[in-house]
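C-alpha cells incoming
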C-alpha cells in the first residue's frame, strides 16, 4: 500500500502486504489495510490523498480584508451591550428594593411588639403598691 494522508490529516507511511495470505491493499483512500481477496483490492491510482491536505497548510495567515472602511467610532455594538446590561441592573435593583419595601410593610409595627412584650413580662399575680410604683 502506498503512503497516504488519512482523514485526520496524518501521514500513514507505505507498508507491504506480504504477510501470509493477506497480500492485497484494500480499504478506502482514507483507510487502507491488507486483505486476502483480489476482488476487494483498492485501486490506489484513483486516490488523491498523497499530498498534504489544503486545510492543513497553516504556513501563513489568510490575507486580511481591507479594514479601511471600518470606523470603530461608528460601531454601536458595545454601546448596545452597555445599555442592555444597565437596564437589567436597574431592573434587578428595583426588584430588590420592592421586595425589601414589601417585607417592611408586612412586618408588625415596633410599638405593637413592645406592648406585647410588656404584657408578657407583666406579672400575672396580684399587684402590690410596690409594683405599681415601679410601673
Amino acid at each position: 500500500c502506498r503512503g497516504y494522508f488519512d482523514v485526520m490529516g496524518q501521514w500513514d507511511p507505505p507498508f507491504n502486504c506480504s504477510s501470509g495470505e493477506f497480500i492485497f491493499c484494500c480499504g478506502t483512500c482514507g483507510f487502507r489495510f491488507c486483505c486476502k481477496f483480489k476482488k476487494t483490492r483498492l485501486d490506489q491510482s484513483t486516490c488523491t490523498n498523497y499530498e498534504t491536505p489544503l486545510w492543513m497548510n497553516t504556513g501563513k495567515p489568510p490575507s486580511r480584508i481591507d479594514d479601511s472602511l471600518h470606523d470603530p467610532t461608528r460601531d454601536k455594538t458595545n454601546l448596545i451591550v452597555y445599555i442592555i446590561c444597565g437596564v437589567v441592573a436597574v431592573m434587578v435593583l428595583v426588584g430588590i428594593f420592592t421586595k425589601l419595601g414589601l417585607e417592611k410593610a408586612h412586618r408588625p409595627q415596633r410599638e405593637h411588639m413592645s406592648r406585647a412584650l410588656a404584657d408578657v413580662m407583666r406579672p400575672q399575680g396580684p399587684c402590690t403598691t410596690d409594683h405599681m410604683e415601679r410601673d
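note: The radius of gyration is 43 Å.
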